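Fill in residues.
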């Protein structure tokens, strides 16, 4: 599955020059890691966000969010946000901040 390079570039712009951020292509997706922990990514035209199990119910209540079910088994603590909900920069910036904050709270790998 190819990923939306335009969305990937928008993410890069928001993450800036933070040396803790790296990116990696995995399973046809592009993921952004904070100190080695996945934070956000692009799958197809949509955004994957790691919010953590406790924050998942709140995240799923937001427009365009759904359970991340990449392999047929839902991934706990992850959501996917539809591209249509990311047209404006505000929601994209907020989602990236959520994913980055969660990953930053984990021990570095």
């Amino acid at each position: 599955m190819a990923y939306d390079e335009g969305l990937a570039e928008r993410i890069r712009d928001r993450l800036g020059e933070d040396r803790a951020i790296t990116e990696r292509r995995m399973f046809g997706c592009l993921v952004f890691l904070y100190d080695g922990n996945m934070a956000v990514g692009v799958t197809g035209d949509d955004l994957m966000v790691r919010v953590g199990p406790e924050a998942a119910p709140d995240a799923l209540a937001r427009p365009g969010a759904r359970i991340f079910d990449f392999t047929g088994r839902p991934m706990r603590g992850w959501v996917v946000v539809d591209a249509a909900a990311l047209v404006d920069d505000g929601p994209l910036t907020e989602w990236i901040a959520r994913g980055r904050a969660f990953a930053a709270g984990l021990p570095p790998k």
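The chain is about 30% helix and 30% strand.
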